[in-house]
Design goal:
The chain is an alpha/beta fold and about 450 residues long. Helix 3 packs antiparallel against helix 4.
């Protein structure tokens, strides 16, 4: 390596117009366009912190062992596209990669398209797996992510159609968009056997993949398409979870039940579309049911929408064939103005395929729910007079304003602070359940963010 650096220095002098003599025995190794050093079948560069990043590999290599150090300098990262290729099939030669404990990050598309890789172990010092890191590793069957990884990037294992085992440690706090989206669908709807096609080549088919999933306790968000179109049969979500992203479990046709923890404050559109859910609980902290959230849930029978939900968006419960009753507890809930928002199916004889609903909608008298049901001729039953509107403001210290100091005051109160002065306890009961607890605290924080 020292020889390469000497050559680079000599060339720099020549390019500046200085006179220098390059020995004949080393001149052929000089490349004016080369910027990376080499080690065995690897190329690498030096990072600003003085460590080494692996940047490439000989395309004919079949087995690669990444060293923990080169010339005494630590190898800490695998760079973007280091082993990857955007041309599918180009990296069929690489069948095995050993990643040392010194690695702390795996770059974007680092192993993109490495079709012959069958298993991979991410060592414990890796903190982040980059976007698309293992995308199109179509024969990858097993992935072990050791404790230490906090972020699994967008599309990290997308289109890994043979993946059957994934171990996700508790250190993971974010699962990126489409991280485990194993097969794409051919149209906007799911087919019974979605095909995995790239450049008109059939790579794999079928839907049996991950089975039972337990999401680790520290995960706070599951982003878009993270587990879409997988053969998931059951999912255990942690109490740390706050957000379920766009189409996160869309087209999981074997998923029949899920318990969404009360910590969840946001569920993205299409999140549970085309699943076999028979029932679902909607947490108190949810304020909106996004469009297509439960679209085409054919086995969903009964749903209760809590009073904190302010809106039900387009096609939220559309084409739910066996839905017989839906209860909406917010008398002022804004329901998207369409027969398809709540429906068992579509009347194909109508111009715009209007929805129909043969079940019963339950709500308060003179509520927006009643108005919606009556407008479209849906059966409606009154559950009583609307309760008095919650006037809780969140102003805990009585200064006439709701801000972070109110949250601090309330947090001290529920933790047992004896010297905490509360102006009006009712102002903290944001979910109107007559209790002052952590659920109100979550809503106060959300209210402050929206403010």
């Amino acid at each position: 390596m020292k020889t390469n650096r000497i050559i680079a220095d000599i060339m720099a002098v020549c390019l500046m117009g200085s006179v220098a003599v390059i020995p004949n025995n080393i001149a052929p190794s000089v490349s004016l366009t080369a910027s990376a050093e080499t080690y065995e079948n690897l190329t690498y560069t030096f990072l600003e912190d003085g460590t080494i990043e692996i940047t490439g590999c000989d395309k004919s290599a079949t087995e690669v062992v990444i060293p923990s150090e080169i010339d005494g300098i630590a190898v800490t990262s695998i760079g973007d596209m280091a082993f990857g290729s955007f041309e599918i099939g180009r990296r069929k030669s690489l069948i095995s990669v050993t990643i040392p404990d010194s690695i702390t990050s795996i770059g974007e598309c680092a192993f993109y398209g490495c079709e012959s890789l069958t298993s991979i172990t991410i060592p414990e010092n890796v903190i982040s797996i980059g976007d698309c890191a293992f995308q199109y590793c179509v024969n990858l069957t097993s992935v072990t992510i050791t404790d230490g990884v906090t972020n699994i990037g967008d599309a990290a294992f997308r289109y890994c159609g043979n993946l059957t085992e994934v171990i996700i440690p508790e250190s993971v706090t974010n699962i990126g968009d489409e991280a485990f989206f194993l097969t794409p669908w051919l149209s906007s709807q799911c087919s019974e056997k979605p095909f995995f096609i790239v450049n008109n080549i059939l790579i794999s088919s079928g839907t049996e993949y991950l089975g039972d999933i337990v999401i680790p306790d520290n995960v706070t968000s599951i982003c878009g398409h993270a587990f879409a179109d997988n053969g998931i049969t059951s999912v255990t979500l942690p109490d740390s979870l706050k957000s379920i992203g766009y189409a996160a479990f869309n087209c999981c046709s074997d998923l029949t039940e899920i318990i969404i923890p009360d910590s969840v404050t946001n569920i993205g559109s299409w999140a549970f579309g085309s699943t076999d859910l028979t029932s679902v609980n909607i947490p108190n902290c949810i304020t909106s049911i996004a469009e297509h959230t439960f679209y085409n849930c054919q086995n969903l029978k009964s749903v209760t929408i809590p009073e904190n939900v302010n809106s039900i968006d387009e096609n939220a419960f559309s084409n739910c064939e066996n839905l017989t009753e839906i209860t909406i507890l917010n008398p002022e809930c804004k329901i998207y103005d369409s027969k398809n928002t709540i429906s068992n199916g579509y009347d194909l004889e109508t111009e715009n395929w209007e929805g129909y609903f043969n079940g019963t909608i339950y709500g308060y008298e003179n509520s927006t729910t009643q108005a919606y049901a009556e407008k479209y001729g849906y059966k409606f039953e009154v559950i009583g007079e609307a309760p008095e509107k919650n006037t809780a403001t969140g102003d805990m210290n009585g200064d006439g304003d709701f801000n972070v100091s109110d949250i601090v005051t309330f947090q001290k109160y529920i933790l047992g602070g004896s010297d905490t002065e509360i102006s009006d306890l009712k102002n903290a009961d944001l979910n109107s359940d007559g209790l002052l607890d952590s659920f109100d605290l979550v809503m106060m924080r959300k209210k402050l963010i929206e403010k």
